[in-house]
Specification:
This protein has a two-stranded antiparallel sheet. By secondary structure, the protein is mainly α. It has helices spanning 8-20, 32-56, 89-105, 113-132, 136-145, 147-157, 162-189, 198-202, 208-225, 234-241, 244-269, 271-298, 302-321, 326-357, 373-386, 393-406, 413-442, 448-453, 461-479, 482-500, 504-527, and strands at 65-73, 78-84.
């Protein structure tokens, strides 16, 4: 088989979708067969992605790889076009990894199991497609289709207020998607040629006002998904009613779609507008970090506390994207992957705890660590990762963003000092609310009412395996970040160079430095 020409990405997208269509034909009443079927499909698809990455992906190539293009509507230059580069490949692998673990986390689901696993496999393919497609209209379509499974999972398997949370989720995200559609059509029909190909659109010379409007519209659309304050309010409600698998998909993958799209489209395709909006991104990033950390500190509901923690950590992605440095952009990418792993682990632990205590209120817990020692140990490890303990991926990612922004020559020193000080304040709040949360759940005297009425069994092997699988890359990246950064460094360096060329002050500085460099030999000769 000619592996170089094999449609790796198309197969990875369509295989779980096609497999989901066979689920109604499986003879199964209690869900035991269909869950194994879904898990095997997920494992096979993830293995396919890993094999393609190991054999076909070149770290030194900053451009698109694994490119596949098939004509769809020839008159509009509309194609099924997919590919992967340093911005998308890490997130494609993250999607396969998290979704497969989320399928395993859904093992206890017994209500409508066929429909549940059908939606899980459909979303598997849709999420990979969001990161892989290279056609603007196709991107909009898969972005919209991916919303349907998570909406149904929230509305059918969620908590008491699931319909409210699911409706709010779909209204926010679908409303933001309108900006994607309008922006995609505007970019495609602008100029002399009509094309939806992202690479061709990136070469178009948009009028300054049009570019600013496009950037603002995309910022709203992707800001909802990231989420950016004040477009974030759907997330705590969605997490407050979701089950563990939905938690893992929301925190581990869906939030990363917003950060990826900001890098791919806002920064990569509208660099001049990015130079104008970058200070706003930095300010919004700081607001996310501080506001969400303070709000998380005040939450008494466990799910909402971790949800606001996610919003806070995604603020570092915004600062990294707007840093105009290789280190800052690399840190933004690392933070997305790192938080995908850490967020999925924390929300899985929330689900494990609720399954045993049947409460989410911290006031109703206490002392349960005496009976659930494995759960306590897993909670502690995941919390240490979230508060950026050295040796774990969160520490490296946040440090790279801090240093990248601090060394940026695109901003006023006073502005940088204020941003770093406020972001550091948010970082200090993180261990305070996470450690106090652990204390309220596990330390102190046992809550007698809770212990008497609930069976506080310790973690089972399946749960230990899921957390161990998540902690391995978290610690591995923390100890050796190059295992991930080498995947996307070539692409982020190229992107940063393009962004710096759009900032007049940086262009002038580079020209001055080049002039000084050229004159240096003459100065040395005069001394002779």
């Amino acid at each position: 088989m000619d592996t170089a020409n094999f449609p790796w990405l198309t197969t990875a997208i369509l295989f779980p979708v096609a497999a989901s269509l066979l689920i109604p034909l499986i003879p199964d009443k209690d869900g035991k067969t269909v869950r194994w079927y879904a898990l095997i499909v997920g494992l096979l698809d993830f293995a396919l992605l890993v094999y393609a990455f190991c054999t076909q992906y070149d770290f030194s190539n900053p451009g698109l790889q694994l490119v596949e293009s098939y004509t769809w509507v020839e008159q509009l230059d509309l194609n099924w076009s997919v590919g992967a580069d340093g911005l998308s490949m890490p997130l494609i692998l993250l999607t396969g990894f998290i979704t497969t673990l989320a399928t395993l986390a859904a093992w206890p689901v017994t209500f409508k199991p066929k429909l549940f696993y059908f939606l899980m496999l459909t979303m598997y393919g849709g999420q990979i497609a969001v990161f892989a497609v290279q056609d603007m209209l196709l991107f909009f379509l898969v972005w919209e289709l991916e919303l349907v499974p998570i909406y149904l999972i929230l509305s059918i398997w969620g908590g008491k207020k699931r319909l409210y949370a699911a409706t709010k989720f779909i209204l926010y995200t679908a409303g933001g998607s309108l900006f994607i559609l309008v922006g995609a059509l505007t970019m495609a029909f602008y100029g002399d040629t009509v094309t939806f190909d992202m690479r061709a659109i990136a070469l178009k010379d948009f009028a300054p006002n049009i570019e600013l409007l496009l950037y603002a519209g995309f910022l709203i659309a992707y800001g909802v998904k990231l989420p950016i304050f004040p477009l974030h309010t759907w997330l705590p409600d969605a997490h407050g009613e979701a089950t563990a698998p939905a938690h893992m998909l929301l925190a581990g993958i869906l939030l990363k779609m917003g950060g990826y799209a900001l890098l791919r489209m806002n920064a990569g395709m509208l660099p001049d507008a990015h130079a104008t909006f970058a200070p706003l991104l930095v300010i919004l990033g700081v607001v996310n970090i501080v506001y969400a950390a303070l709000t998380s500190f005040a939450q008494r509901n466990l799910k909402r506390k971790i949800a606001y923690s996610s919003i806070s950590h995604m603020g570092f992605v915004l600062i990294g994207i707007a840093s105009f440095t290789d280190l800052g952009t690399s840190g933004a990418m690392l933070q997305m992957v790192s938080h995908g792993l850490i967020g999925a682990s924390l929300f899985f632990m929330v689900g494990c705890t609720y399954d045993r205590t049947h409460t989410l209120m911290l006031d109703e817990m206490g002392g349960v660590g005496q009976k659930m020692r494995k759960v306590f140990a897993m909670w502690t490890a995941c919390s240490m990762a979230s508060l950026a303990l050295p040796g774990m991926s969160g520490f490296v990612a946040e440090l790279m963003v801090f240093v990248g922004f601090a060394t940026s020559d695109a901003y006023n020193p006073v502005f940088k000092v204020c941003v770093i000080f406020l972001a550091a304040f948010g970082v200090i709040l993180t261990p305070i609310y996470l450690l106090s949360m652990l204390r309220e759940i596990f330390y102190g005297p046992e809550n007698k009412e809770l212990v008497e009425h609930e069976e506080l069994v310790d973690a089972e092997p399946r749960e230990v395996f899921i957390i161990a699988a998540l902690l391995v890359p978290i610690i591995g990246i923390g100890l050796y970040p190059k295992m991930l950064t080498q995947v996307y460094d070539a692409t982020t360096v190229q992107l940063t160079a393009k962004l710096r060329d759009s900032v007049p002050s940086l262009v002038a500085k580079a020209a001055a430095d080049k002039t000084v460099s050229l004159r240096a030999p003459a100065i040395e000769l005069s001394k002779l």
